[in-house]
Amino acid sequence: MVLYPGLGLFYALMVMVVLCYLGLRMLLNAPFGNVLVAIRENPERAEMLGYDIRLYQTLSFGLGGALASLSGALYTAWGQYITPSSMGLTAAALPIVWVAVGGRRDITATLLGTLAVLFSFQALTIYGSQYALVVMGALLVFTVLVTPDGLIATAMERLGRLTRTRSGRRNPT
After folding, report:
1. pTM score of the predicted model
2. 157-169 pLDDT, tens per residue?
3. How do the domains of the chain map onto residue ranges?
4. Long-range contacts of 34-43 (CB under 8 A, 24+ apart)
5. How buried is residue 165: exposed, middle or buried, by Cβ count under 10 Å (0-12/13-18/19+)?
6. pLDDT by residue (tens digit) across 10-24?
7. Half-sphere exposure (CA, 13 Å, Cβ side) for 27?
8. 126 CB-near residues (< 8 Å, 6+ apart)
């Protein structure tokens, strides 16, 4: 007798999230990740330093595609059914909101922003399904206009400044 039939899949997903997060964290701290950050910040300078930016971009695109395919396979395993309509414009636009809310410069902030937006989106679809997409669109516009670095990243930065000033260290800004 199974009390919660999806509990095994939940634990498998949690293990995969942790493994993907740690793997990406290790990758970003490796020389490969440093080159990717350099390409993001200034591709011309990275190319002048001798890095083949097309190769690095292709490898990172392939890694993103592999993670997306893993996500699609797990989504299908969870729902046990998939149609082309379930991967429409809404499903394609939600990851943009996740990254915008979390911030694209810090992988931890991106993960926290994604979890916050997913939980709030699920609650909105349960209690007010007709307004969920409107709220997500307003959240995206607010994030882009008010905190372009991301809500979570900005909150983490301000919290860090607050704790530095309270601990007696000088605030450099």
Report:
1. 0.76
2. 888 888 888 776 6
3. 1-82, 84-173
4. 36/60
5. exposed
6. 888 899 999 999 999
7. 13
8. none
